[in-house]
Amino acid sequence: MADGSASGGLRDARGRLIDPDSPLALKAHRTNLLNVTADALCAEAFNDEPRRLRIGGTRSEHAVLFEALDESPNSLIAADVFQHYMAFTFGLNPDFSGAEGADGRRRYRASYLRLLKGWLFDSNNAEGAVLKGWVESRFGLLPTYHKEPILRFASDAWRTYGEEKVATRFHNNNINLQLDLLYEYCQWWMRRGWPDAPMPSRASHIRLYRGVNDFEEHHIVARPDKRTAVLRLNNLSSFSIERDIAGQFGDYILETWVPLTKVVFFRDILPRYPFKGEGEYLVVGGDYRVGVSLL
Which GO terms describe its molecular function (predicted)? Predict the structure, then answer.
């Protein structure tokens, strides 16, 4: 999605000059599985006027799940409905062992819960690579960082990410479909308007915070002033709803309004599962205008 010329240098899809050492994230896949192109999705303008996103066919193919969710009287029952459906459909168990085979032994099956648990522990492990790979395949956005900055396809960083995102240990049992359903359930949950939700049902954005020590993981698109930056975030990033919690991860606090359509997961939607990291939100990346302040 980038064109180069002898006189003008390398440019992205919107005509901006690209530094030869800029991350792959300034490019994007030509296709994705959404109703919005990857190029439009990663633009700052999308965050100003977000559109509802749909992963092709997920709602219609699993209509029975969303019909059951619509009948749920409260958020706890809705979470139980979702997790029971996932357990039945994909043969999941709390210990991730899967269903019994003909020999009576249980075998490991990849689970969206295991990926979330791994991400909350360390977003640069193999589970994190699978989640970033899912965003790449569904949303069309390339990662900027996995263990180290990813600048080129022909690099050790890209090779490491590529190997981990398709590792059979986590990349089986229709794991991408599991994550599709998780995203659609999260979107359904936020629009339902539960009394205990951190956002009203008609909200379009939520204010979130991220603590950083430097900008190594995020490409700086523009720096209008010392207190503002436009960053190309990693294709999947963690934020916190609490500024104090974000401050535990870095001296600089990034503050931004995230479109709800870019929220993949937060703990409230699965309250009975013992996730750590209360207040953490998994957010699809792209260009974000952020306020920058010291802790």
Answer: NAD+-dinitrogen-reductase ADP-D-ribosyltransferase activity
User: Residues 28, 13: contact at Cβ < 8 Å?
Assistant: yes
Q: Which of 283, 210, 281 is nearest to 248 (CA)?
A: 210
**3 state SS of 272:** coil
| Helix intervals (H) in the chain | 38-42, 44-48, 58-61, 63-70, 75-90, 112-121, 126-139, 156-165, 175-192, 243-246
Burial tier of 158 (Cβ tally within 10 Å: 0-12, 13-18, 19+): middle
CB 75 within 8 A of CB 158: no
**Residue of 59 and 153 predicted with greater confidence:** 59
Which residue type, as a one-letter code, is found at position 261? T
* Of the listed ranges 4-18, 108-122, 215-229, 257-271, the one predicted with least confidence: 4-18
Could you give the count of Cα atoms lying within 13 Å of 33 in the half-sphere of its Cβ?
A: 14
Average pLDDT over residues 264-290: 90
Give the model confidence (pLDDT) of 138-173 as tens digits. Answer: 999 999 999 998 888 878 999 999 999 998 888 889
